[in-house]
Amino acid sequence: MRILTAGGYAAEATSERYLPTPITTAMTVPSVEASIKHRYDFGLPTLAAGPDYYKRAHFRSPTEYTDTPFQRAFNTDLGFYEYLSQHPDAANNFHTYLSALQKRSPQWVDWFPVQERLIDGFKPDQQGKNVLLIDIGGGEGHYIKTFLKKFPHAPGRLVLQDIHQPKDTEELRMGFESMKHNFFDSQPIRGARIYYFHFVFTDWADSHCQRILGKTAAAMTPGYSKLIINDVILPDTGCHWQHAALDIIMMSTLSGFYRTKEDFERLVDECGLSVEKFWYPPGGMGDGVVEIMKKAEDQLDG
Question: For the chain, which terminus, N or C, has the lower number of CB atoms within 10 Å?
């Protein structure tokens, strides 16, 4: 116990009698417990496999989802999410940890001018059949629920798309629809006002992001539809240590990475899109917003 008391994880009441500390009390919170288990079980082995992987790859960043230090660490050909699907306890830890992060982070609807930039321009006669917002790859719908709570009287339909549909009919009670959809496939809803992505492009290398953006751009209406990327926007210099550390983890686990303004501009330009504006959350930490529109036909060759 000496190492634990020295580190502040336990307090000595008397000789060989111990008490919890604020640290160990916090570790009993389910989300904190899940975070520790996920980082220990997955983060550390993946990072430990990094030096050998990068040496063999001639120190080039991974570009394929199934060829990263994660596969070397766990001796698998499966991608991270596919591996989790076969290990329910690990998947539960990951999703509990991720859910806690989402709830702690500033929500884009609380600081981004949604009403002025998005809702005010909504036109119910567009070919998107009155769709205001599509949350693409939105999982169980945390962000579409947040949007609905913030704007309960917003016009138009709200649609949650994910490769797995929610297990119950909660969306019907909440006031949004769900649709099974793989964002690598053609977007079936054309002409919607908002195509929203949160924490999607961070997971993928540029070539995969271009596929996702291309499929989405094909469904957008120039001058009307907006594509919103709600994700970290790295500065060119002075990157915060948390973002720098997570950037390494994303690259080592998924072949993804955080992007700078220049990275985003280049990525969307290659898909017939253009950045309208970059928006940053209060305090500079957390996820920003990249506001994007589709280029008109006369802009595509420029």
Answer: C
Give the CA count within 13 Å in the CB-facing half-sphere of 301.
2
Threshold 0.90, pTM exceeds: no
Alpha-carbon torsion 27, 29, 32, 38, what sign?
A: positive
What phi, psi does 207 have (nearest 5°)? -60, -40
Average pLDDT over residues 240-247: 90
Cβ(158)–Cβ(177) below 8 Å: yes
Q: What is the dihedral of CA 281, 283, 286, 288, to 10 degrees?
A: 30
Task: Evaluate whether 131 touches 189 at the Cβ level (below 8 Å).
Answer: yes
Q: What percent of the chain has pLDDT over 70?
A: 94
Measured CA to CA, the distance from residue 60 to residue 4 in angstroms comes to 39
Structure tokens at 294: 């589709």
Q: What are residue 144's phi and psi, to 5 degrees? A: -70, -30
Residue 13 has pLDDT above 70, yes or no: yes
| Contact (Cβ atoms closer than 8 angstroms) between residue 211 and residue 267 | no
- Output the pLDDT for position 300: 64
- Sheet of 177-180, strands arranged across: 177-180, 157-162, 131-136, 194-198, 226-231, 288-294, 273-279
What is the distance between the alpha carbons of residues 64 and 254, in angstroms, rounded to a whole number?
A: 8
Residue 26 and residue 13 in contact, taking contact as beta carbons nearer than 8 Å: no
CB 222 within 8 A of CB 295: yes
Q: Rounded distance, CA 135 to CA 108, Å? A: 13
Q: Are strands 259-260 and 233-234 parallel, antiparallel or unpaired?
A: parallel
Distance (Å, rounded) from C-alpha 44 to C-alpha 49?
9
DSSP H or E segment with residue 12: strand 10-14
Asked if pLDDT for residue 180 goes beyond 80, the answer is yes
